[in-house]
Write a structure and sequence with these properties.
Elements lengths: L3 H6 L1 H11 L5 H25 L7 H32 L19 E6 L12 H8 L2 E2 H8 L5 E2 L2 H19 L3 E4 L3 E2 L1 H7 L12 E2 L4 E3 L4 H6 L5 E2 L6 E10 L18 E11 L4 H18 L4 E5 L11 E9 L4 E10 L3 H6 L2 E3 L5 E3 L1 E9 H11 L14 H4 L5
Parallel strand pairs: 4-9, 8-14
Antiparallel strand pairs: 1-11, 2-3, 5-7, 6-7, 9-10, 10-16, 11-12, 12-13, 13-16, 14-15
Length: 409
C-alpha cells in the first residue's frame, strides 16, 4: 500500500507508475474519495462532540440530541461506504517505480551483466524431461493420477540433488547472517494481501482453502512478511535477515504457454527464499547484497547466467525495483528465468503495519526486500542442461559434491 500523503502531493507520479506497469487505476477518483472521506470524518467528529452534553437534558435538548444521533448514524453509514470504496481503490495502486527502470513490457527488460560460458556442446543436449524419464527421476504421470496435472513425484538421485542444492544455499545464506526459518504453509488472507499476492484473473497464484480464512503459500515471502506484522521493531535489531525454506504452491492459471512441458512451471516445488527488513536508507544497498548472494549460488553451481533489470510493464505491484537472474539453456539456446530479487520499499510493511521508532520518537515503516536463493524446479533443469555429458550422464558441480556425496548424478 502506498502513502496517501505522498500521493496527494504528487498524484502524477503514481498515475504514471500505474500506467507504465499497465495497471488500470484512476488516481483522480481515489483523490475524490479521499477528500470525501476526510470531509465525512470531520462531520462525524463534529456530531459526536454535539452528543457530549453534561447533566440531564431538557425535552428540547433531548429532541435535538435524538435528531443529531440519527444524523450521525446516517453519516457513519456514508463514511463506511466511502472508506470501503477508498480502501479498495487505494490497494490497487502499485508502488512507485525506481529511476532508471526501462519503459515497456517484458521485451524491454535490460541485460546488465552476464557470467559463464554459454555451452554449445558438440553433442545434442537432451532436455530435462527426457533425461529424467530415462533415469526415473521425475514421475509426472503418477503425480497427475494422485493430484492432477502439473504435480509430480521426485525420485532417487533427484531427491538427493534437491537436498544437496538446498543445503549449499542454506550455508551461503547462513554465512551472511541470515536466520533459517521453517514457516507455516498456510496463511490468512490479510497476510497474502499484505505482500501483494492477490492479483486477479489469469495472474491469480494462490490456492484458497474453502470455508476458512487460510491460503496455501506461493512462497515463504508471505509468512515471513507477516512475521513482524503490527510490530514496532527496535532499530538496533535491523537489518533482520531471514531465509525461509518451504514448498511453494501456485495455481499458475493461464501462465503455461510454451513452457508448460516438464518441471519449469508446476503447482508445487520447494524453495529457499531470502528476506530482509531494513531501514529505508539501507534498502538499495541490501538489494545489491541479495543479488550478490544469488550470483554466488549460481557460480557455485557453475550455471551460466545473466542479470536482467526488469522493465516497468513487467513489474508486480509491490516492486519498486526488480532484477531477474536468468540461466543459459543449451537446449533452447536462450536464457530462462531462474531467480528474482525485488526491493518493495514500504509497500508491504505499510499494509501489514511493520514499523521502527526513530530517535526523534516518530514511527516510520521499514523497507522489505526478497530474493530467491533456490527454486529447485528451475535449478534442476539448469543443472541437467549445463552439466550433461555426451553419454547422457550429469556431472555434479565441484562445490556441490560434498553435499551430494559424489561427482555424478
Amino acid at each position: 500500500m502506498i502513502d496517501i500523503k505522498q500521493l496527494r502531493e504528487n498524484p502524477k507520479a503514481y498515475q504514471d507508475s500505474a500506467n507504465q506497469r499497465g495497471v488500470n487505476v484512476n488516481i483522480d477518483k481515489l483523490l475524490e474519495l479521499d477528500r470525501e472521506r476526510v470531509e465525512l470524518i470531520g462531520r462525524v467528529e463534529k456530531l459526536r462532540s454535539e452528543l457530549n452534553v453534561s447533566g440531564k437534558p431538557n425535552p428540547e435538548q433531548l429532541t435535538k440530541l435524538q435528531e443529531t444521533k440519527g444524523a450521525l448514524e446516517r453519516l457513519q453509514l456514508q463514511l463506511t461506504n466511502t472508506e470501503a470504496a477508498y480502501l479498495d481503490l487505494l490497494l490497487q495502486v502499485p508502488n512507485l517505480i525506481a529511476e532508471g527502470t526501462p519503459e515497456g513490457g517484458e521485451e524491454a527488460n535490460r541485460t546488465d551483466k552476464t557470467w559463464g560460458e554459454r555451452r554449445k556442446p558438440q553433442f545434442a543436449v537432451v532436455d530435462h524431461l527426457t533425461l529424467s524419464q530415462a533415469n526415473d527421476w521425475l514421475d509426472f504421470e503418477r503425480g497427475a493420477k494422485v493430484a492432477g496435472s502439473k504435480f509430480l513425484f521426485l525420485k532417487g538421485a533427484a531427491v538427493k540433488l534437491e537436498r544437496a542444492v538446498m543445503h549449499l544455499a542454506m550455508d551461503v545464506t547462513e554465512q551472511d547472517s541470515f536466520t533459517l526459518m521453517g514457516v507455516p504453509h498456510l496463511t490468512t488472507e490479510r497476510m497474502v494481501a499484505g505482500t501483494g499476492y492477490l492479483p486477479r484473473g489469469e495472474e491469480r497464484q494462490i490456492y484458497k482453502i474453502e470455508g476458512e480464512d487460510l491460503n496455501l503459500i506461493a512462497t515463504s515471502e508471505i509468512p515471513i512478511t507477516g512475521y513482524h506484522a503490527d510490530e514496532i521493531i527496535d532499530p538496533a535489531d535491523l537489518p533482520l535477515r531471514y531465509a525461509g525454506i518451504s514448498p511453494s504452491y501456485r495455481v499458475e492459471g493461464g501462465a503455461y504457454g510454451r513452457y508448460s512441458k516438464g518441471y519449469y512451471r508446476v503447482h508445487q516445488f520447494n524453495k529457499l527464499e531470502m528476506y530482509v527488513f531494513c531501514r529505508p536508507d539501507e534498502s538499495e544497498a541490501w538489494h545489491r547484497q541479495l543479488l550478490d548472494l544469488e550470483e554466488q549460488i549460481c557460480r557455485k553451481l557453475e550455471i551460466p547466467y545473466r542479470l536482467v533489470r526488469i522493465a516497468a510493464g513487467d513489474l508486480g505491484a509491490p516492486a519498486y525495483k526488480k532484477f531477474d537472474v536468468e540461466y543459459w539453456s543449451p537446449v533452447e539456446e536462450k536464457y530462462r528465468e531462474l531467480m528474482s530479487c525485488s526491493n518493495c520499499t514500504d509497500y508491504q510493511s505499510r499494509r501489514l503495519n511493520i514499523r521502527i521508532r526513530t530517535p526523534e520518537g516518530r514511527t516510520e515503516f521499514v523497507h522489505t526486500l526478497n530474493g530467491t536463493a533456490i527454486g529447485f524446479s528451475r535449478v534442476f533443469i539448469a543443472l541437467l542442461e549445463n552439466h550433461q555429458t555426451a553419454d547422457g550422464k550429469v556431472k555434479v558441480p565441484e562445490a556441490l559434491q560434498p553435499y551430494y556425496g559424489g561427482s555424478e548424478l
